[in-house]
């Protein structure tokens, strides 16, 4: 039974099992990434010869307004939507996990639907809604709330707000589900004890739910940070990164420089910088993961 | 006190119904616009329900825009990508959970580290590699990078921990090979995990946009998200057709949420809360 073949297949099994992941990872992620580092030091537009230019691209990057603007835009959009989204998600989750709430299954599904439906589809419908002659402006004007259409997509700040509204619409349900999961793991006896002591619903939310959810909320925040910096499809369709670069994100910049302007070298430099930002953020995420255990 | 509670809960319910209406509005507007004539899209006053339903918007997508192919392409990439990723992730997750082997810690560390390289930062060279391999404008080019998922490995590893060692040992005593152990013992136990993770992968793949839009070119090779976007053209964009395409793209996802919501919610919370 314990023949040579059996021992061989037993010894190699774990390696054979992890091999597919590593082969695919090396070919489709790691090698391209290393190649990307190399390209970031060249001035390359897709032709045969790649000229080595040292740190030139990095100098351009650091002095380039577009790049800093894209980082700033991400931060602004983050500040605009994350507090609103997490607050909404927290309210949804705490109401939907309480015993007196009706139709919780229905509401949970409704709020989650935007997250699993196509970003492209949703971005296009928001384009129709936010258009200067779109439904939202028409309804507001016909109701006499405003007299001039609001330039939802045409001025920098409104464009950022519109992108933020779209992101809140898509991601509130997702965060609500994560928070619901956390709330269900809080022991019911804590709330019962609080009720016996005469604490109101709001008090037990403040003193039991919130402290227990602190880590999870931090986790959601970090996830949102990663999400904001890699935001692409929403501004790509809704605002095309404009007006005046106001909603251009780092990933949009990579896309534009590499596949539209064919500045492959410079695009790689942005990619590497983008990687560094994302790495710092993921390290924060891993730390939170570890503390959770 | 009790009465106050009751009125409060009714008020909250009403507010939630209003919010639900707000959350559903874009979908209703999408459906309404998908049945309009192009001239009715921005009509003032707004048209809520078009006088005549322009079903030809939908048929036009199939006859002129290859939407038949597009749907098949999307299904093919989503199903193949999902099945492949589940297979590879569960194999690796099983190995990390149930075997002791030299280099295990290092390899697992690499899986962790792989999380830190976002796809976007190796997009440029990957495009060059694809050009040399002839994967541009090829559906396999969409599928291949999706087959690795560090998140999937974590998830499967976590789930494999619950497989009892005695079960594996007993099978080995009977001379069962490790491959057979995976297929006959582990895989059946993992079915609920396959369901939860598989739905998440499927949804992501179906809605995937950035990379497919970079490599797919021909109209009959597109996946649905890219196909919808390809309808946008200069000044005279046919928004009614875009909305029809959007309706087609969200219908399967609505079916998914109504059938599998338990698995989706379980998958999301297990994957992140327990880490």
TrEMBL record, chain A:
Subcellular locations according to the entry: Cell membrane
Family: Belongs to the binding-protein-dependent transport system permease family.
TM helices/strands, residue ranges: 21-41, 71-93, 105-130, 157-180, 216-238, 264-284
UniProt key word Acetylation: no
InterPro entries per the UniProt record, alphabetical: ABC_transporter_permease, MetI-like, MetI-like_sf
Gene Ontology cellular component annotations, sorted alphabetically: plasma membrane
Protein's recorded name: Sugar ABC transporter permease
Membrane recorded as keyword: yes
Biological processes annotated in GO: transmembrane transport
Alphabetical UniProt keywords: Cell membrane, Membrane, Transmembrane, Transmembrane helix, Transport
Any one Pfam family match given in the protein's UniProt record, by short name: BPD_transp_1
Matches recorded under PROSITE patterns: ABC_TM1 (PS50928)
Segments forming domain ABC transmembrane type-1: 71-285
Chief location category: membrane
UniProt topology in membrane: Multi-pass membrane protein
Naturally occurring in which organism (per UniProt): Paenibacillus mangrovi
TrEMBL record, chain B:
Gene3D superfamilies in the cross-refs: MetI-like
Domain of life: Bacteria
Pfam families to which the protein is assigned, alphabetical: BPD_transp_1 (PF00528)
Keyword terms: Cell membrane, Membrane, Transmembrane, Transmembrane helix, Transport
Topology within the bilayer: Multi-pass membrane protein
GO CC annotations, alphabetized: plasma membrane
Extent of the signal sequence: none
The ABC transmembrane type-1 domain, residue ranges: 71-260
Transmembrane spans: 7-29, 70-94, 106-130, 142-160, 181-203, 239-260
Location, primary (coarse class): membrane
Compartments, record wording: Cell membrane
Single Gene Ontology BP annotation: transmembrane transport
Record-stated family: Belongs to the binding-protein-dependent transport system permease family.
Name of the protein described by the UniProt record: Carbohydrate ABC transporter permease
UniProt organism field: Paenibacillus mangrovi
């Amino acid at each position: 039974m314990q023949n040579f073949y059996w021992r061989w297949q037993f010894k190699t099994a774990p390696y054979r099992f992890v091999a597919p992941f590593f082969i695919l990872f090396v070919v489709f992620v790691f090698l391209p990434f290393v190649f990307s580092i190399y390209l970031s030091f060249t001035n390359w537009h897709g032709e045969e010869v790649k000229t080595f230019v040292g740190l030139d691209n990095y100098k351009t990057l650091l002095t380039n307004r577009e790049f800093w603007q894209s980082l700033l835009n991400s931060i602004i959009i983050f500040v605009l939507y994350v507090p609103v989204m997490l607050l909404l998600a927290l309210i949804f989750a705490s109401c939907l996990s309480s015993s007196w709430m009706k139709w919780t299954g229905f509401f949970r599904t409704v709020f989650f639907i935007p997250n699993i439906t196509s970003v492209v589809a949703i971005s296009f419908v928001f384009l129709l809604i936010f258009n200067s002659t779109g439904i939202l402006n028409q309804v507001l004007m016909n109701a006499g709330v405003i007299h001039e259409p609001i330039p939802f997509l045409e001025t920098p700040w409104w464009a950022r707000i519109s992108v933020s509204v779209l992101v809140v619409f898509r991601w509130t349900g997702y965060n609500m589900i994560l928070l619901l999961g956390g709330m269900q793991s809080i022991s019911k006896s804590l709330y019962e004890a609080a009720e016996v002591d005469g604490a109101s619903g709001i008090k037990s939310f403040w003193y039991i739910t919130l402290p227990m959810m602190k880590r999870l909320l931090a986790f959601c925040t970090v996830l949102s940070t990663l999400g904001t910096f890699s935001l692409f499809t929403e501004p790509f369709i809704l605002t095309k990164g404009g007006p005046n670069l106001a909603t251009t994100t780092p990933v949009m910049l990579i896309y534009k420089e590499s596949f539209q302007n064919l500045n492959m070298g410079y695009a790689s430099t942005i990619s590497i910088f983008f990687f560094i930002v994302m790495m710092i953020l993921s390290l924060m995420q891993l730390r939170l993961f570890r503390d959770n255990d | 006190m009790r009465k106050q509670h009751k009125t409060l809960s009714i008020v909250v319910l009403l507010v939630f119904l209003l919010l639900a209406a707000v959350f559903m509005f874009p979908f209703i507007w999408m459906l309404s616009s998908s049945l309009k004539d192009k001239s009715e899209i921005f009509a003032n006053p707004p048209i809520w329900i078009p006088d005549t339903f322009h079903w030809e918007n939908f048929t036009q997508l199939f006859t002129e825009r290859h939407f038949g192919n597009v749907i098949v392409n999307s299904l093919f990439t989503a199903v193949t990508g999902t099945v492949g990723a589940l297979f590879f992730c569960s194999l690796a997750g099983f190995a990390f959970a149930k075997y002791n082997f030299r280099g295990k810690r290092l390899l697992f560390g690499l899986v962790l580290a792989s999380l830190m390289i976002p796809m976007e930062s190796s997009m440029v060279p990957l495009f060059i590699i694809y050009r040399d391999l002839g994967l541009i404008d090829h559906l396999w080019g969409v599928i291949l990078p999706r087959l690795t998922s560090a998140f999937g490995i974590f998830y499967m590893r976590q789930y494999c921990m619950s497989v009892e060692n005695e079960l594996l040992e007993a099978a080995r005593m009977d001379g069962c090979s490790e491959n057979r152990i995976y297929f006959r013992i582990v895989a059946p136990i993992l079915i609920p995990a396959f369901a939860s993770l598989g739905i998440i992968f499927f949804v992501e793949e179906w809605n995937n946009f950035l990379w497919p839009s970079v490599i797919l070119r021909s109209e009959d090779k597109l996946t649905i998200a890219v196909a919808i976007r390809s309808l946008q053209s200069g000044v005279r964009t046919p928004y009614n057709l875009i909305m029809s395409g959007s309706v087609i793209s969200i219908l399967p996802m609505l079916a998914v949420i109504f059938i599998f919501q338990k698995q989706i919610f379980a998958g999301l919370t297990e994957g992140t809360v327990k880490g």
